């Protein structure tokens, strides 16, 4: 019996203007994909397609058209989907990483009974939590200080600060104030520049940042400047994590060449941006073969996508905090069993999903 597919849009509303060095966002348009057997419509798998403006290669005006095309191909029996199976090449999803992630998630969910259990592991069974970093959004100094105090009270042992929109001196003062409260042995601090530094001044800024004993800096300069990034990674006093640099690099040879040219200390994997679980697993394998560290991060998805990424992360040997603390960003997120306790993300198995699609 062939599977059926549908999609529905959902506009997520931020609780505040979420600022990065690329600007502020108030809403995030996502699409939920639903897959089911026609004989059992009450049992369905769900996935989330949530490309990000300014980042995703599939944040395009024809996204809904592509979603409809995929739905039509499947529902008219021209392409067959299989629960938990590989995605058919006829769907032509190479340039649509967020859609690949959504379909992979929905099919795995259906394979496991349509209960939002994407992977069976200790996390998805509610037995262990995943350490996560507390995300500190850009804003004026008082807004950032307020967030930092709140996260420390909530028991986080790792904070991640977005930098690059305030003047650099103010950002250094904020880092100084954190270190006055908690040393590097008590609190891990990551920063994310979202490519805000120029190649000319990046090294000097990294030297000044090193004073605060940072775990890492994400994407200090804009992607696509491989020689400059390689030079920085070779001499940096602060370990560098590639993030945007991985977007759109889908050929295995190009991926290997990127890692071997730049030799980053870490890579950060966002399934929405790199193309789902299969693609993320390939990056992980290549990174580990080369002694490069990695962690998973959500890309502002609702709890549908966050749940899937968290369960995928938990299927691996997690040795450092993951970037999965984004479930509290929205007024109208999907109520779910996910919750954070003392800086760890937990799946509370007794709590129900509240979904109406």
From TrEMBL:
<dbReference type="InterPro" id="IPR013342">
    <property type="entry name" value="Mandelate_racemase_C"/>
</dbReference>
<dbReference type="InterPro" id="IPR029017">
    <property type="entry name" value="Enolase-like_N"/>
</dbReference>
<dbReference type="GO" id="GO:0009063">
    <property type="term" value="P:amino acid catabolic process"/>
</dbReference>
<protein>
    <submittedName>
        <fullName>Chloromuconate cycloisomerase</fullName>
    </submittedName>
</protein>
<dbReference type="Pfam" id="PF13378">
    <property type="entry name" value="MR_MLE_C"/>
</dbReference>
<keyword id="KW-0413">Isomerase</keyword>
<dbReference type="InterPro" id="IPR036849">
    <property type="entry name" value="Enolase-like_C_sf"/>
</dbReference>
<dbReference type="GO" id="GO:0016854">
    <property type="term" value="F:racemase and epimerase activity"/>
</dbReference>
<keyword id="KW-0479">Metal-binding</keyword>
<dbReference type="InterPro" id="IPR029065">
    <property type="entry name" value="Enolase_C-like"/>
</dbReference>
<feature type="domain" description="Mandelate racemase/muconate lactonizing enzyme C-terminal">
    <location>
        <begin position="141"/>
        <end position="239"/>
    </location>
</feature>
<dbReference type="GO" id="GO:0046872">
    <property type="term" value="F:metal ion binding"/>
</dbReference>
<dbReference type="InterPro" id="IPR018110">
    <property type="entry name" value="Mandel_Rmase/mucon_lact_enz_CS"/>
</dbReference>
